[in-house]
Amino acid sequence: MTVKIAPSILSADFARLGDEVRAIDEAGCDWVHIDVMDGHFVPNLTFGPAIIKAIRPYTTKVFDVHLMIDPAQPYIEDYAKAGADIIVVHAEADKHLDRSLQLIRSLGKKAGVSLNPSTPETVLEYVMDKLDLVLVMSVNPGFGGQSFIEAQLEKIARIKRMIGHRMIDLEVDGGVTADNAHRVVAAGANVLVAGSAVFKTKDYAANIAALRR
Ligand code: DX5
Ligand code: ZN
């Protein structure tokens, strides 16, 4: 299976966000990972729908929108309209995960669920058929540049088994580097999110290539 690289624009230069999105596109990224934070579910604040709408014209690549907000449900339609292709909600947010997933698909978008490091994969058991993607957080969400939590490798492998032959992407987010990417993929991931590992130096193409190797 080919591995997709999804740079997180949380580590981009916010003063030049459109140009940064174009730059990672030209550097060969597969998806653009957009970390939406509300200062409530996570201790940080980032992008509203208007910002996503503003950067949408800078690339035709998939916008992978990771909602670290609680509640998420009231904002799902706004992010869909702003240009998200995949909308990922957290299993720990809201009260009705099944309903959120149905709403995302009813808007014609791909539906994802993200799990915090301490959340067991069993929360996925009864929504597997409503999912297009599972996002395993390998750091506690809120900030870029944290260290990969090794215990998540086992969770990735367990979720990979739960997915079986279903067409569900398994994405890993947080602390992914060129040094540990192979272990994350070996555990079963097919999409790697990387913020600092992509934006750490100007040569985004080389940084993305290093993650693929
Ligand atoms: C953390 C975000 C991640 C983060 C990854 O809350 O969900 O996407 O930006 O950044 P790195 O790759 O620097 O850990
Ligand atoms: Zn993320």
Automatic annotation (TrEMBL):
<comment type="similarity">
    <text>Belongs to the ribulose-phosphate 3-epimerase family.</text>
</comment>
<feature type="binding site">
    <location>
        <position position="35"/>
    </location>
    <ligand>
        <name>a divalent metal cation</name>
    </ligand>
</feature>
<protein>
    <recommendedName>
        <fullName>Ribulose-phosphate 3-epimerase</fullName>
        <ecNumber>5.1.3.1</ecNumber>
    </recommendedName>
</protein>
<keyword id="KW-0479">Metal-binding</keyword>
<dbReference type="InterPro" id="IPR026019">
    <property type="entry name" value="Ribul_P_3_epim"/>
</dbReference>
<dbReference type="GO" id="GO:0005737">
    <property type="term" value="C:cytoplasm"/>
</dbReference>
<feature type="binding site">
    <location>
        <position position="8"/>
    </location>
    <ligand>
        <name>substrate</name>
    </ligand>
</feature>
<feature type="binding site">
    <location>
        <position position="33"/>
    </location>
    <ligand>
        <name>a divalent metal cation</name>
    </ligand>
</feature>
<feature type="active site" description="Proton donor">
    <location>
        <position position="173"/>
    </location>
</feature>
<feature type="binding site">
    <location>
        <position position="66"/>
    </location>
    <ligand>
        <name>a divalent metal cation</name>
    </ligand>
</feature>
<dbReference type="InterPro" id="IPR013785">
    <property type="entry name" value="Aldolase_TIM"/>
</dbReference>
<feature type="binding site">
    <location>
        <begin position="142"/>
        <end position="145"/>
    </location>
    <ligand>
        <name>substrate</name>
    </ligand>
</feature>
<dbReference type="Pfam" id="PF00834">
    <property type="entry name" value="Ribul_P_3_epim"/>
</dbReference>
<feature type="active site" description="Proton acceptor">
    <location>
        <position position="35"/>
    </location>
</feature>
<keyword id="KW-0413">Isomerase</keyword>
<feature type="binding site">
    <location>
        <begin position="195"/>
        <end position="196"/>
    </location>
    <ligand>
        <name>substrate</name>
    </ligand>
</feature>
<dbReference type="GO" id="GO:0019323">
    <property type="term" value="P:pentose catabolic process"/>
</dbReference>
<feature type="binding site">
    <location>
        <position position="173"/>
    </location>
    <ligand>
        <name>a divalent metal cation</name>
    </ligand>
</feature>
<keyword id="KW-0119">Carbohydrate metabolism</keyword>
<keyword id="KW-0862">Zinc</keyword>
<keyword id="KW-0170">Cobalt</keyword>
<dbReference type="InterPro" id="IPR000056">
    <property type="entry name" value="Ribul_P_3_epim-like"/>
</dbReference>
<feature type="binding site">
    <location>
        <position position="66"/>
    </location>
    <ligand>
        <name>substrate</name>
    </ligand>
</feature>
<comment type="function">
    <text>Catalyzes the reversible epimerization of D-ribulose 5-phosphate to D-xylulose 5-phosphate.</text>
</comment>
<feature type="binding site">
    <location>
        <position position="175"/>
    </location>
    <ligand>
        <name>substrate</name>
    </ligand>
</feature>
<dbReference type="GO" id="GO:0006098">
    <property type="term" value="P:pentose-phosphate shunt"/>
</dbReference>
<feature type="binding site">
    <location>
        <begin position="173"/>
        <end position="175"/>
    </location>
    <ligand>
        <name>substrate</name>
    </ligand>
</feature>
<dbReference type="GO" id="GO:0004750">
    <property type="term" value="F:D-ribulose-phosphate 3-epimerase activity"/>
</dbReference>
<dbReference type="GO" id="GO:0046872">
    <property type="term" value="F:metal ion binding"/>
</dbReference>
<comment type="pathway">
    <text>Carbohydrate degradation.</text>
</comment>
<keyword id="KW-0464">Manganese</keyword>
<dbReference type="InterPro" id="IPR011060">
    <property type="entry name" value="RibuloseP-bd_barrel"/>
</dbReference>
